[in-house]
Specification:
about 300 residues
């Protein structure tokens, strides 16, 4: 039982994470000298762990086609961060009423951000409401939340009542939610381009993400294997798993080649493997768009904690 596997299941697919169960080497692994991680290495690993948690939460609660919103203020607006949060809560309250009218439960994740030039905006992942007026409802709710009263005739005529400050996009399957997770947890600069430092309250609010209380949290299925299991997977590779008969690929799924990430931990000399199986039947445009391969960073802190 040299390796442990964490399995995360969602509508997006099945994520597999293999990691050695030991600390500094084992019978079937090349031993490496113990190396204490630096503070910067631990910080990078903690950031990576946070991105993974958020990505898995997105995959578990949201689907491709759900809303990716950016709620903005007019250029040059400088509001106390407490008032920004009050505006966002008012926006959520208004949207919850629209969802309630259609007997739909509102789910969301958000992050308040202050740009390098001081522009305040809120990023939101929200489950889509099956209403053709969705963009109008969002614009109307954000306009009213900021204390402005739209012209009702404009809404009746099918025109957007807001002033272009509520941007709507959609959650995309390409990349498996990695970009969204990185956006929601990226580090907030402590200083603007003009040299203005953020206040303690601004740093406190903008340095973390928030969510509705009704989200499901990812709970992995955990299995243990001997070293030969990982060896066979590495020998097959993403291409082999998809084309050769084997017992490792889940029926009805194919391995996303862009998610295949394996290598040797530079601090322990131990091997690791991560990949995602996706349901067969993606559209051509989804499979043609490729995400650049990114090598994950691992430190002794992650090995000791037993997480990725």
């Amino acid at each position: 039982m040299a390796y442990r596997e964490w399995i995360y299941k969602s509508s997006w697919g099945i994520e597999h994470v293999f990691q050695y169960m030991g600390v500094c080497g084992g019978k079937h692994e090349k031993r490496a000298d113990h190396e204490k991680p630096t503070r910067d290495q631990i910080k990078r690993q903690n950031q990576k762990n946070k991105e993974n948690r958020v990505r898995r939460t997105i995959q578990l609660n949201f689907k491709p086609g759900d809303w990716w919103l950016t709620l903005k203020y007019p250029k040059g607006t400088r509001k106390p961060i407490g008032e920004v949060m009050d505006d966002f809560r008012d926006f959520i309250r208004r949207m919850r009423k629209h969802y309630g009218r259609m007997n739909v439960e509102l789910k969301y994740m958000y992050r308040v951000e202050i740009g390098k030039r001081g522009g305040i905006h809120v990023h939101v992942v929200m489950n889509r409401l099956s209403d053709p007026r969705g963009d109008l409802l969002i614009s109307d709710a954000w306009t009213r939340a900021r204390g402005m009263t739209p012209i009702e005739d404009m809404l009746l005529d099918g025109l957007c009542p807001a002033d272009g400050l509520a941007h709507l996009d959609h959650v995309r399957r390409v990349g498996n939610g990695v970009d969204l997770a990185e956006y929601l947890v990226k580090e907030q600069p402590l200083e603007l381009e003009d040299g203005t430092e953020l206040s303690k309250d601004e740093i406190k609010v903008t340095s973390k993400y928030g969510s509705s209380r009704n989200l499901q949290r990812p709970v992995p299925e955990i299995k243990t294997y001997n070293h030969w299991t990982l060896r066979r997977l590495l020998d097959l590779g993403a291409e082999g798993l998809n084309t050769k008969p084997n017992r490792y690929r889940t029926e009805g799924y194919a391995v996303d080649k862009d998610s295949w990430n394996c290598g040797i931990n530079p601090y322990t000399g131990l091997s690791y493997l991560c990949y995602m199986e996706i349901p067969i039947g993606r559209t051509k445009c989804e499979t043609e768009k490729k995400r650049p391969h990114r090598q994950a960073e691992y430190t002794m802190a992650a090995i000791i904690a037993g997480t990725m």
